[in-house]
């Protein structure tokens, strides 16, 4: 296995793993956040505005973790610096 | 397949490059500014008013109410900064329905610039309200041990603001681009609608977070939103 194949295999499998593992935590967290917000809405319908706003901000916080994982996997697949370096070396030869 | 609109070059002259991000940013800024100037030239105070004035009034009163809800006293002082942030990001994300348009917010340069504006504005508002000593003292709360962590959180939340907006917008464009190549034509439309919703939510989130940071720096009252800033 030459270096290019090695880089490709490592990048692609790491990208898949990043998305897979990195989505578990945010998914559980968002589920817990929404369920708690729903029960507090049921108990305190007057505070709907505050609860909803806080829920949305919290969801964005949680979601950004998943987005970071997505960005990293996209970088690994489409803008991988090692891969670009290997391509430049082979075409330069 | 390109990751950001920075790679779409419209015009090149030596080392000067006009990429899509700059072009669309300036087009948006021009549209927003020209629209505001045109509408506010003939403002009426009686019951009959133009529909455009009505639209702007709804926007301004809505943003003022949101700023008030977060716990910033005297929302008119922060309306200029926060309202401009919201309007620019929302307009940039909404215009994705125009074909051939690339949202400037899906480039890391734009989002980093916006986050830097927040990073600079928060201490300015804080110093304006509490004085330099009072603002610097807020870093050593609750104890002096927390000083490095407070400074780190200041930097990391700015990074988080930039990467959150960039990642959300980039992923939306990316997913639609990938789906166009592998699925029939109906499915990307659904994802585009979802992308519009995400864009509006992100514009709202960006503004609310900026307002929360300002509220925490000015200490006008204890902010209602107690969010531990983290990456």
TrEMBL record, chain A:
Choose one Gene Ontology CC annotation of this protein and give it.
plasma membrane
Q: Which key words are in the record?
A: ATP synthesis, Cell membrane, CF(0), Hydrogen ion transport, Ion transport, Lipid-binding, Membrane, Transmembrane, Transmembrane helix, Transport
**TM spans (from-to):** 53-79
Any one GO MF term held by the record is:
proton-transporting ATP synthase activity, rotational mechanism
Protein family? Belongs to the ATPase C chain family.
- Any idea what job this protein has? Key component of the F(0) channel; it plays a direct role in translocation across the membrane. A homomeric c-ring of between 10-14 subunits forms the central stalk rotor element with the F(1) delta and epsilon subunits. F(1)F(0) ATP synthase produces ATP from ADP in the presence of a proton or sodium gradient. F-type ATPases consist of two structural domains, F(1) containing the extramembraneous catalytic core and F(0) containing the membrane proton channel, linked together by a central stalk and a peripheral stalk. During catalysis, ATP synthesis in the catalytic domain of F(1) is coupled via a rotary mechanism of the central stalk subunits to proton translocation.
This protein is called ATP synthase subunit c
The beginning of the lineage is:
Bacteria, Bacillati, Armatimonadota, Armatimonadia, Capsulimonadales
Q: Which gene encodes it?
A: atpE
From TrEMBL, chain B:
Kindly give the CDD domains that the UniProt entry links to this protein: ATP-synt_Fo_a_6
Similarity comment: Belongs to the ATPase A chain family.
Q: From which source organism is this entry?
A: Capsulimonas corticalis
Q: Where is the signal peptide?
A: none
The answer to whether UniProt assigns keyword Cell cycle to this entry is no
What UniProt keywords are attached to this protein's entry? ATP synthesis, Cell membrane, CF(0), Hydrogen ion transport, Ion transport, Membrane, Transmembrane, Transmembrane helix, Transport
First-listed, main subcellular location of the protein, grouped into a coarse class: membrane
Q: Which GO terms describe its biological process?
A: proton motive force-driven plasma membrane ATP synthesis
Name this protein carries in UniProt: ATP synthase subunit a
GO CC terms of this entry: plasma membrane; proton-transporting ATP synthase complex
Extract one GO molecular function annotation from the record.
proton-transporting ATP synthase activity, rotational mechanism
């Amino acid at each position: 296995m030459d270096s290019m194949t090695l880089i490709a295999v490592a990048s692609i499998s790491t990208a898949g793993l990043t998305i897979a593992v990195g989505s578990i935590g945010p998914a559980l967290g968002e589920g817990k956040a929404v369920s708690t917000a729903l029960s507090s809405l049921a108990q305190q319908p007057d505070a709907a505005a505050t609860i909803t706003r806080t829920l949305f901000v919290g969801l964005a916080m949680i979601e950004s973790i998943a987005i970071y994982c997505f960005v990293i996997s996209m970088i690994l697949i489409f803008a991988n610096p090692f891969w670009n370096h290997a391509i430049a070396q082979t075409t330069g030869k | 397949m390109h990751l950001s609109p920075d790679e779409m070059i419209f015009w090149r002259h030596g080392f000067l490059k006009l990429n899509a991000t700059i072009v669309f940013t300036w087009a948006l800024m021009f549209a927003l500014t020209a629209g505001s100037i045109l509408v506010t030239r003939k403002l009426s105070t009686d019951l009959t008013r133009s529909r455009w004035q009505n639209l702007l009034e709804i926007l301004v009163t809505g943003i003022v109410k949101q700023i008030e809800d977060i716990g910033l006293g005297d929302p008119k002082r922060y309306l200029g900064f926060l309202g401009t942030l919201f309007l620019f990001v929302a307009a940039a994300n909404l215009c994705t329905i125009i074909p051939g348009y690339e949202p400037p917010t899906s480039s890391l340069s734009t989002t980093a610039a916006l986050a830097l504006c927040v990073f600079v504005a928060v201490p300015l508002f804080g110093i304006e309200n509490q004085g330099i000593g009072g603002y610097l003292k807020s870093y050593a709360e609750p104890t002096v041990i927390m000083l490095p962590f407070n400074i780190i959180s200041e930097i990391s939340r700015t990074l988080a603001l930039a990467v959150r907006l960039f990642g959300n917008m980039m992923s939306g464009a990316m997913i639609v681009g990938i789906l166009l190549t592998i699925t029939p034509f109906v499915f990307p439309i659904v994802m585009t609608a979802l992308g519009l919703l995400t864009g509006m939510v992100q514009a709202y989130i960006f503004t609310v977070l900026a307002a929360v940071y300002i509220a925490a720096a000015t200490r006008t009252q204890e902010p209602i939103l107690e969010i531990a800033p983290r990456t």
